[in-house]
Structures are given as structure tokens and as C-alpha cells.
Write a structure and sequence with these properties.
Shape of chain A: elongated
Radius of gyration of chain A: 19 Å
Helix content of chain A: over 70%
Largest interface: A-B, 41 and 41 residues
Largest sheet of chain A: none
Strand content of chain A: under 5%
Oligomer: homotetramer
Chain lengths: ~190, ~190, ~190, ~190
Amino acid sequence: MPRPRSEKAQQAVLSAMRRAVAAGGYQRVTIEGLAAEAGVSKQTIYRWWPSKAAILGEALLEGEIPGDPPRHEPTDDLAADLHEWLTAAGAHLSRPENIALARALIAVTATDPRLGAALNDRFARQTVAWVSERIEHARALGMVRPDVDAEAIADEIVALTSYSALLGRPFDAARAFAFVDVLMHGIATD
Amino acid sequence: MPRPRSEKAQQAVLSAMRRAVAAGGYQRVTIEGLAAEAGVSKQTIYRWWPSKAAILGEALLEGEIPGDPPRHEPTDDLAADLHEWLTAAGAHLSRPENIALARALIAVTATDPRLGAALNDRFARQTVAWVSERIEHARALGMVRPDVDAEAIADEIVALTSYSALLGRPFDAARAFAFVDVLMHGIATD
Amino acid sequence: MPRPRSEKAQQAVLSAMRRAVAAGGYQRVTIEGLAAEAGVSKQTIYRWWPSKAAILGEALLEGEIPGDPPRHEPTDDLAADLHEWLTAAGAHLSRPENIALARALIAVTATDPRLGAALNDRFARQTVAWVSERIEHARALGMVRPDVDAEAIADEIVALTSYSALLGRPFDAARAFAFVDVLMHGIATD
Amino acid sequence: MPRPRSEKAQQAVLSAMRRAVAAGGYQRVTIEGLAAEAGVSKQTIYRWWPSKAAILGEALLEGEIPGDPPRHEPTDDLAADLHEWLTAAGAHLSRPENIALARALIAVTATDPRLGAALNDRFARQTVAWVSERIEHARALGMVRPDVDAEAIADEIVALTSYSALLGRPFDAARAFAFVDVLMHGIATD
DNA sequence: TCCTAAGCGAGACGGTACGTCAAGTCTTCTG
DNA sequence: CAGAAGACTTGACGTACCGTCTCGCTTAGGA
């Protein structure tokens, strides 16, 4: 019967978090600044989120997911699919605000492993599932050795993007492709 | 004529930093707590280090380097060398205090990319160099294809350990070995 | 057709105010606490009272008035009447909850002189009137000098009880009687 | 050996408290406002004073004491001395800032009886001592009855000023004099 | 040997942000 | 349509650390 939660306030906070992280990095975000920027009172923030990290988590889940850029229609050519995905990921991480968000996710994870693990799980799961599925598909076509651990490979590709975002390296597509080619050789049937 | 820098105070600070990070994580370390724990005045800390991150950097450089565990004598068997290295790295990262230190390094990097890049460079360089060298050695023996980018492979192995430390996963040796085996296949001459 | 003011809610608030003041002092009373204690919504309180002080005022007027204890039948013996009144006042102010209420009245007065004056006027007026009347009666009997300002004396007696309540001194009947006796000498016809 | 307490900061806070009380009343004084007005950090205030009331106490003790205006040379004429004291007190309490300070003292006392009692004791003691002494002096001269309780009389005079300040009445000198005259009659030897 | 300039502990200082509390206003639904 | 429930903005609370700034006390060189 009480007044319902203000959807507007909530969205304003999440949006402010995204902007603030993009602007100055997660570390510099303050609850007070967030509240001011969102035109919302601190109390409202504390009412709905237990921590700064939780706000970031929700903000990330609402927005585009870093490391999970739009994926195109899969084909029967595994190498081509991975190239395409990596190209898209590279484009995603070439935008400064996306690097900042990805780094914020990493900072939270390094700081609060429990929450970080939950968030990472959510973000990585889709990517890992998609890549695994592509590999299994290729295996079904007889192009991948039966003893290859598809998830381990998928995981490693996530590690690659995470590490790149962490170091803020300009995502080196050539190097990534070279790596994928090695992988392709590694998993291919002889 | 002035009194020289107190080696004792400096060591006490670095040691306090290591203990504090191991105990509560980098985020919770405060300069005040560090000073109290080390029995040193805040002024002394500010005199010698420009930031908390710098103290961590020096503390890491003085101690054992995370991700850079003791490496054994290389052999002619690349796969065996990598297995051995990964086993050692896994053991290193199975100790909670080492995970904490590695995570602190990641947190600093995610927060202050400039400083973080410098630190990571220092820590990763040796590992990358060592792995690259092993690959080149194997290539010289005719066991690795000429077009393989050794550094990209080495880099990817660092990414693997970094990502593991970040998520705090119990280091899964079996999976790591499976991945290395794929790599071996991938880089091997046909 | 509008629903009438809920007498029950109103009484619950006033009663909660009395209990809260007795328990923790006026300063610690909060509207929220009052609402919760009375099982009433804040809005209801704000609808009917303009301020915390106003609630206290109404609560005091409804309950027994501090400094205005039950007065007995007056006699022709002024000193005896005053002794009796002071005894009753002393008994009244020896109960902690009455001290608390009296102090609350003083706190309000010290804080909001306008409202405080109105309240004090209400509470003091009766006492002053009664004492003045007794003095005038005695004067009519030829026992009080014609130039004595009865109201000034009455006022002073109120000041005495107010000051005692403020300091929370155990009401010292002997001292009060001594003072009254001096007054009696002071106003008596030679 | 640490840096010594800043006398300037302390004085600035006390002065700010006096000004703030005079301007808006004790209730409206906030620590934050005090800090801002004094150009001092909140921490500095909390370091040296346990409560807002304590600051007021010290501010009052440093300044002129309300209810304890300058006292002139005593004479052998008790009535004249009391008249003079009351005149001075009336002048003191006719200045709005002094009324505000006196009311602040009362508000603190009504709110925190323990601290209030301590403060009142300090302020009232001198006045009570001085008046008592005057009465005793007059008694030594044979002008006051032996059974009169000098302290009770003195106390009552303090109650009179306190009550006047509380109600914020323009201090009515005529009425006060009338009261003193009654007292004089009351205590005089027959 | 003593002088003296810096190092050092201690901790006060002006700040910023924290997370909490209550004030007073505003919706919403229920009786 | 009054009233309970409670979300909302506002603003102060008292605390924790920040990085800077004295203090008075070592503690070496260089004189």
C-alpha cells in the first residue's frame, strides 16, 4: 500500500553510475557524487543497494555487457566465427567508456571476490556457452578432435579479453587472430 | 650530514603492506593503518612513497612475484617445461596470501592503468620472456611451426594465470594442462 | 462525508508523547518514534499538529498540569495554604515522569519562546491567580500590607518551582517553607 | 611531541557558538554550521568537545556569565546592594544576545540535567555566594533576623532571574524591586 | 667532540566521503 | 476520503582517512 519504488530514480542512479565510471573510473565514483549527478538523495541509494559494487553490477546488467558484444549468426566455419566475435569484441573495447566499465568490473572483482564472481559468472557465461557451442558444432562436423575441452578453450578466450581490458591495451586484432589460428591448429583433427 | 633514510622503517612499511593485503585485501588497507601497524609515522610514509599503489608495487617487487614463481631448469621438452611452470604457479596461487597479493596487483591496475601497466610489465615481462624463449628453443629444434607468434602464446599464458587469480578459482591444473596440450598441438609442426 | 478526525489516533499520539517524554526526555522524542509507538502514520501527526512542541503542549493540557497540582480548600491561614500547596507541588515533582514533563515544558520554552510563553501562561496563570487570590484574601483580613504586589509574590513562587524542576533538585520542602516564612514576614502588616 | 592544540581554532569555535546562539538560538546551532562559521573542520570540534552542550558550556564560561553581571562594591546597605545587582542583571538580560545565551543554558539544562547542573552550579555559585555574604554581613550588623536562611534567599533570587530569562520577559525592574522590598521586610529584625 | 640538518614518532589540522537518522512531503492502496 | 504504510528529498549526524603541517627527539656526518 505504500508508495511504490520510483523507477525513474533507479534508472537515474544506474545511468549516473555508467557515466561516472566512464568519466573517472570506478574508484573515483562516490555515492554522494552519484546521488548529486542522478538528482536523487543518498538515502534512496542506500535504500535499494547495499554497496557501490552492487550498483555497478546492476548498471552493467542493464547496459551492454562488456565482453559480450553483439554476436552474429554462426556459420559452419569456426575460425571465421571466432574471428568475427573477436573483431566485434575489439570494437567494443576500443571505446573508452567500455574499457572503463570493463575495468570497473575487474576492480570490483579484485576487491570483492564473492560479488565479483557472481557478476563475472553472469557476463562470462553467455560468451563461454556460445564459444563452446560453436566448438561442439565444429566437432559434430568432424573438424575438432574428440578429446578437446571446449569449455577450457572458451574460458581462455574470455581470459584473453579480460586481460586486454585490464591492461587497456589497444586490442590487437592481428595478435588475437594469430592466437586463434594456433588454437584452431591445436584443436583440429589431424 | 643529514640522517639517512631508515631502512628499518621502510622494511616495516613494506612488510605491513604485505600482511595487510593478505589479511583484508588491498582496498581495506589504509595509510593510517599501515603506519600504526609498522610503528611508523604517516609523514615517513608520505616522504618516501607517492601513493598506496606505489607501496604495494615496491612490496611486491621485494617479495616473491605473483605469477612469477620459481622456475626450474628448462629442458628440451616444451610441454614438460610448461606443465612444470603451471604446476608451480598453481601451487603459488593456492596460498591465500599470494592470491590476495595478485588480486591487489590487479586492483591497482584496474584503478590506475598507468601505474598498473608499469607494474604488470615488470612482473609479466620475465614470464613472457621465459616462455617465449622456451618456444623459440623448441622452434630451433624444429618442433614449432615458423609462423607461430611466440610472444602471443606467452602472453596468453599470463592472461590465464591473471584471470584465475582474479576470479580466485582454485587453480585447475587439469584444465590448464588440457589447454597447454591444445596449444602444443596448435604450434607443433605438422 | 469526510471522515472525521480519529479520536483514537489523536489520543494514542498524546499518550505516546507523554510516555516518550517520561522515558527519554523531550529532546529524544521523534515524530517517527511517536508515530510508531502510537501505531499511527506520520501523515496523521502532521495533519493535526504543526510541531513536536504543539503535541507536547496538548499532551500537557490533557494530562495533569505540572506545577499545577491539585489544590485544597483554602482557609484563612495564608501560610498554611501556601505550605499545603508547596507540599503538594513537591510531591508532584518527586515523581520522575512529572519532572520529565516539566523539563520538557521548559525545554520547549527555552527553544521556542513564543509557543513556550503561551504554554507557560496557561499553566502558570492558574497558580498565579490562586496564590494572588489567597494573598488578597489575607489582605482583606488585614494581615497583608496594602503596598504588597500580590502578583509579584505569586510569580516568584512559580519561579521557585520552575527552577527546582529545571535543576531536578529533590524538592527541598524545608527550604521552601523557610522561604515562604520569610515572605510571610515580608508581607505581613507590622 | 605532537603539534599542539590550536588555540586559534578553539577560540574560533567558541566565538562561533556565541554568535550562532545569539543569532538563532541554541536548538538551531549545528556542528556543521559551527565548523563552517569558525573555519574549522568538524573533526577538530569532535576532537576537543564531547557534545554541542559542552561547547556552549565552555563558551559561556569564557564569555560574560549570564546572571552574573559585574558586581559593584558592596556597602552596608543590603537593600541598596541588591537593587544595584538587580539593575545590572536587568541591563545584562536586556541585550538580546545575553537572553539567547541564558536561554541556551536553560535549554541544555532541561535536556541534559547532569551537564546542566554542573554548568548552573558554576554560574549560580558566585551569585549565591555573593548574595549570601551580603545577607550575612547585614546580619552581623544586626539588621537580619538570626533564623533567616541566607542561601535560600539567594537561591530564590537566582530563580527569579532564571525564570525571567526563560520567559524572555523584559526584565521588570519595578517588580523586582518590589519583591526585594518584601524580602527585606521579611528578613529584617523586628 | 660538538653542531646541525634531516629523519623520525606523534598527532593536530582542513577536508571529503562515509553510512545513518529524522524531518517533513508525497503517493498509493484499504477500510 | 481519512489513515497506514512507506518512498522521497533534505540536511545534519558522528566516524574514518586523506594528505599536510608542526612539534620535540634522535642520529648521523662534517667541522
